[in-house]
Amino acid sequence: MAIIESAITPEVVEQHGLSPEEYERVLHALGREPNLVELGIFSVMWSEHCSYKSSRLHLKKLPTEAPWVICGPGENAGVIDIGDGQAAIFKMESHNHPSYIEPYQGAATGVGGILRDVFTMGARPVANANALRFGRPDHPKMKHLVKGVVAGIGGYGNCVGVPTVCGETNFHPAYDGNILVNAMTVGVADADKIFYSAATGLGNPIVYVGSKTGRDGIHGATMASADFGEDAEAKRPTVQVGDPFTEKLLIEACLELMATDAIVAIQDMGAAGLTSSSVEMATNGKAGIRLDMNKVPCREEGMTPYEMMLSESQERMLMVLKPGKEPMAEAIFRKWELDFAVIGEVTDTRHMVLEFDGEVVCDIPLGPLAADAPEYDRPYLSKGEYQAWAKVGSLDDAPQSEDIGAELLKLLASPNLASKRWIAEQYDSQVGADTLQTGGDAGVVRVHGTRKALAISTDCNPRYVFANPYEGGKQAIAEAFRNLCAVGARPLAVTNCLNFANPQRPEIMSQFVHALEGMGDACRALDFPIVSGNVSLYNESKATGGGSAILPTPAIGGVGIIDDYATMMTMGFKAEGENIAIIGPNYPAMGQSMWLREIHGREDGDAPGVDLADERLNGEIVRKLIADGKVTAVHDISDGGLAVALAEMAMAGGIGASIDAMTGDFAFNESQARYVVTYRADGDLDRSQVPFEKIGTVGGDRLTIGESTVTLSEMREAHQSFFRDWMEA
User: Kindly report the CA angle at 463 between 726 and 131, in degrees rounded to 5?
Assistant: First the structure.
């Protein structure tokens, strides 16, 4: 982007994404007019992406504490105790706008950025996950976007050597003009060797390490804080370019230096690059910072302080070292063929001061930049007003299932329920040799050198959240909880990626506020705190005509612990003659169901209600059944209801089943807090302790539900057909 060499006019202020009122706050904070460098720094630090100015007020209401939480929101990632002196460190981040403009690099640098958030705290990354939302498959740009995003995630994660173990991919017309790419990383560290970002120690050296700074990604944070106009392609220069091989070197160099006592503070350069990393370090340490911009390693000629501070070039970190440790640290980074430069020092002024060519080019008090950034209480609709605005159709004329078998095959072939093998095969899920399960309810990775394993799941049903933001928010947390319980893990904590449209529209802000209310209630009831996350707003596009907003999508990343991976559960049917049972309540919840959408083309009715007491009780029951060896397969019931859950278990195990006669609303309803389990023919479950209903037995080469029968081969063909036919077309 060309540097604006002009006076600070209202047009220049507007180009930097600041409102006239916000610019008045800048004038008040400085007591004078800013220069261009200072204006640029305020613009990125006060962007929605960095300051959370529309969401901070409501994020404060979320539960973030538990005895096992070591560090909640506010640092690079959340940290939880997993026993034996070890901690899991994890976070989820969005890279939505960049991935729409340049899908390969947008997705790749999303993975790179979230990896840095985790290893900057001292963790070795052990698993990646993702949550992807695309528009209609027949949209002219969608195949290109899917191919590019999947290649970018695989290209970066595979090269760095971190396995991608789980994820979700959904399609809906609401994402035609604004896809969502949410990336998650989980790492493991020693609990007594966690690194934080607070810069302290007057005179301590500030060190830049990693790659050189270029002109890629300038204004990336600002671009991510606005909706798309007709000029999306023109924003291509704001997308960063990633190099996974450099990132691998950076991980190893940082972990090697972290094994010494040299580091006082460390921060990755993510959104807003050198600006946000230096501001956050100084603010967290209640200190000041002075940088000599002539010492910043640059890969392009003639870069200005404005460009250096706003660049989002990848694979860069900022550190505060103990005095005298610079030569040792430099030797480590030079060994790994990375740049190393002392570019400044910690001060006690609580100002950010930048010098260039012997002149002070920026002098900003840090309070207004960070803690005193704008915070808005945006207007939002009440729940009743929202329902009137959303105009979700009623289910008074609910259709009936006519042929369970035929409808099941159609569901299995639909884009949202189809096999994602085409995607999964492009990700290395086995690198590191600790992956224990992929493709089930949760990805599972062994904690290296122990009997423990971490379970990871990503979940959200945006149709539910649109129809009923409060229940949809509850359901997203509850489903992550269920998926972890289904593999035998004890759910510990949540990270999230809150993807919504324009918060200046009261109906969108209503979605945000009520979804967070539901999430908070679910987290409290399930003892499942939120320890990290990200907010991505303005996810809408004028390019598709008419101002298209995404569905509200609070993507949830759940993490749980399995104390002994020998007890880990999988979902595939295991043996002929075993009994099949449902645990949990069954009531007709056809509203917003996948069956209603795919079979009848309707998105009507209320989202299914979530009884949090049932969720907690049934999760605990399932985990105890798994721990006691009473069940042989477990799968949670979600999109597509019981029939789809049974089909997935049959395909995973390569064995069919015979199910008692049932109606369509029993086969396809999406009532919550339910699991399918199997148990041995000679075993039994205790009805006084387990609320179960036996519905059939395992066996044969087909799934028979009452009078309907589909063979395993028919189900597999339907399940594999969508991506195969779409990508080969």
Answer: 60
- Which segments of 203-348 does DSSP mark as H helices, in order? 220-223, 244-258, 273-284, 305-310, 326-335
Check: CB of residue 266 under 8 Å from CB of residue 120.
yes
Tokens representing 52 are 């959370």
How confident is the model at residue 547, as a pLDDT? Answer: 56
Residue by residue, what is the 3-state secondary structure of 521-574?
HHHHHHCCCEEEEEEECCCEECCCCCCEECCCEEEEEEEEEECCHHHCCCCCCC
Which amino acid makes up residue 134?
Answer: F
Condensed to tens digits (0 to 9), the pLDDT of residues 551-584 reads: 999 999 999 999 999 999 999 999 999 999 999 9
- What's the token pair of residue 525? 């009831």
Domain locations along the chain: 569-729
The β-bridge relationship of strands 263-268 and 316-321 is antiparallel
Q: Which of 495, 525, 519 is nearest to 611 (CA)?
A: 525
Listing from the earlier edge strand, what are the strands of the sheet with 316-321? 263-268, 316-321, 205-210, 339-347, 288-292, 351-356, 359-365
Q: How far apart are CA 218 and CA 1, in angstroms?
A: 7
Look up tokens 């991919």; give the residue.
Answer: 169
Percent with pLDDT over 70 in the chain: 96
In whole angstroms, give the CA distance from residue 646 to residue 584.
15
Position 543 scores a pLDDT of 56
Mean pLDDT (whole number) for 315-341: 97
DSSP 672-709: SS-EEEEE-TT----TTT--EEEEEEE-SSEEEETTEE
Catalytic residue ranges: 49, 95
- How many other C-beta atoms lie within 10 A of the C-beta of residue 297? 17
The model's pLDDT over 238-256, given as tens digits with 9 standing for 90+, comes to 577 888 999 999 999 999 9
- Report pLDDT for 239: 73
Query: Nearest 10 degrees: CA dihedral of 550, 552, 557, 558?
Result: -150
Can you give the pLDDT at residue 362? 94
Q: Stretch 36-57: mean pLDDT, rounded?
A: 92
User: What integer pLDDT is reported at residue 610 of this predicted model?
Assistant: 97
Give the 3-state secondary structure percentages of the chain, helix then strand then coil, rounded to 5: 35, 25, 40
Domain spanning 569-729: which CATH class is it, in words?
Answer: alpha beta
Determine how many CB atoms are found less than 10 A away from the CB of residue 30: 16
CB atoms within 10 A of CB 84: 11
Write out the two tokens for 316: 């860069």
Q: Which distant-in-sequence residues (6+ apart) come within 8 Å of 242 by Cβ? A: 105, 108, 109, 111, 112, 156, 314, 315
Q: Which has more confidence, 365 or 49?
A: 365
Residues in the chain: 729
Tell me if 114 sits within 8 A of 71, measured CB to CB.
no
Give the gyration radius of the chain's Cα atoms.
Answer: 26
Q: Which of 15-19, 85-89, 493-497, 584-588 has the lowest mean pLDDT?
A: 584-588
Is pLDDT of 228 > 60? no
Q: Would you state the pLDDT for residue 50?
A: 87
Q: Give the helix/strand (H/E) hosting 484.
A: helix 469-486
Neighbours of 53 (CB within 10 A): 21
What pLDDT is stored for residue 224 in this prediction?
52
Torsion of CA 635, 91, 430, 483, to 10 degrees: 0
CA distance 479 to 556: 9
